[in-house]
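INTERNAL AUDIT FORM
Audit reference: QA-55
Scope: verify that the stored structure record matches its stored sequence.
Auditor: D.O.
Record contents follow.
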Amino acid sequence: MRNLFRWLITTTLIIRLLFTNITVVNAQDTGEPFTPHYEETFEGMPICAPGIYVIPPADCLPVGPSQTLTAWAKIGLTFPLKPLPALHPDASYLELDQNYAKLNLPPGAQAAYYPNIESAIQGWGALSTLPIGETLYVAYENVSYYEGNPYVYNERGEWIRASPTNYSSFQGLLFDRLPENDFGWIVDLTNPRREPDYNAPFVNEKLVRETIVQVYDQLEAEGTIWYMIGLGKWVERRAIRVVSPRFSPPEGIENGRWIEINLFEQTLTVYEDNRLVFATLIGSGYDPYYTQPGLFQVQEKIELETMTGAFETGKVDYYLLENVPWTMYYDGPRALHGAYWRALFGYELSHGCVNQSVADAHWLFDWAIVGDWVYVWDPSGKTPTDPAFYQAGLAF
């Protein structure tokens, strides 16, 4: 019985120590008798009901599930998930009173315009010829077929062999209020992983191109950046392009209105009254035809612009792009414009211009005015910034 009594006393003291912070003063140091001092603790407080407690409550302990839920809420991860406060611009921006065709020619062949379809089929009596090139697109009014081959007729009354094409229907996002977290687009077919690790198991979910996702966290691992797009869902940098909304304008912009181009993410954002109003994917210049970083202004707006020229010696890379829609020059020959010949956005794919989908270029053209700021930057620091690198040559 005596041993049991001692065990009960010892156990009581241990439990007391677990829930109390004890400060012991050594009698040998002060000359005073040994006196334990007990500080106020959470002993006796109940555990809070499971929930989100961004501000710690005074009458309960937010531990266990509440701790986890609160940590998720602080990065915007709630249940059910809050939708992104965005929508696509009106579908009317997709409409364009233009038809386009691509000249599909054998290597080294030269395209020509003819006075009628019979001449075009036979290949004689050409009115004019085009230089041999790589990227040749023309605008047309009508199309006819002979033995399965298309021939298009333009507004000048000329015929040329070319294949009608369709342009991308991709559209960016309009925002009525600031999103609570970052967001982005999937740019390649991918399966999220359960952890930010190439060896982590895949989530049983396939994400296709242009899927819109919210981004709740990010970290660097295994030589890349991983983005958390949901609970237990991580995708790596190659599969996603991310927008991190600004809360203040870039240096030099004081009217709260600007177009921002992020060369690393290949995104374009638009701000009005210092607030994000639009975001989309773009295609900027690739090496060595970079899009120049810097602060610029819209210089000129042209609804339809024919772009033609060559970059290489001997003009072996001659290009012709008729009736490029919604063009806004902002840096010499470099412009923001619709790119009806592009199927994909979110990658470096131009000769210096900022390529957009036809619908996005239309929306931006309507929003912008001459003199608006255009801020171009590369947070990775890989794009050359020396103005001497950028010639006043051609771009598209």
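Auditor finding: record pair retrieved intact. Residues 108 and 287 are 25 Å apart (CA to CA).
Action required: none
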